[in-house]
User: Fold this.
Amino acid sequence: MPDKQADPLIVAISSRTLFDLEDSHSLFASEGLDAYAAYQLSREDELLEPGVAFPLVRKLLALNEDSPPEAPRVEVILISRNSADTGLRIFNSIAHHGLAIRRAAFSNGAPPFPYIRPFGADLFLSTHAQDVRNALAAGIAAATLLPAKALPERQHQLRIAFDGDAVIFGDESERVSREGGLEAFSQHELDRAGEPLSGGPFRGFLDALHRLQDAFPMGQEAPIRTALVTARSVPAHERVIRTLRDWDIRLDEALFLGGRPKGPFLEAFGADIFFDDSEHNIESARGLVTAGHVPHGVANPD
Assistant:
């Protein structure tokens, strides 16, 4: 069994990312809370279809099976604006799909994000943009997913891809690019090639994921594979490589695209989820892979 003393990797998700709840959400938007509650209660025994984050959740929880003794546990927590009463349908569906989700917070319409930190979550995924922004402001890695049906799974291995600036790293270099252009950005990064970048909102999640990944053997057959997918190119690559080396973080693949659309590369990588601060890059990826928008940094003014 995994070491119960090891820090677990904890992922909090909203019910609309786990299951396809769009019919009932549309009813809520058009007719209100009472109609929504009546709809859910009347369909309490009808199973929900998998939603956009369902394949990711299933792969995360599968890491607990036959894992090395030193591997941290993976826990998924449900954070929902439902009431416990209307949430019973969700838990019936969780049980049907065999998902080992034991903890939940039902806020009955109130913002649920205050419960994310007490649960110790390393990552929060939601369809509610303001909840995501609030979680990021509280120092928790978070991303907004557009609700959708689950994409087909292409491999058993869990594959996670990250943008660099304003996601893994801080956004200071991106600010130079926006203010001075590509040439100023390239010179800025060349001059500071030996100076580690600051950590961005996903630094903590990346650390927790790396601890988990490090408990498994390396190589193509490892259960987790990660990738950096960035618009950077030479000469701005060196600072990224040296920063990850300074952090003692291993990313299995690094794609320096020099501004090319990210979607086709993410599809080729087979990402189960991709995190980026740019809505443009999210649109390039969406439909090909599950894409989470990180509303942080200079690209996302309040």
Summary: The radius of gyration is 20 Å. The mean pLDDT is 91. The first strand starts at residue 9 and ends at 13.
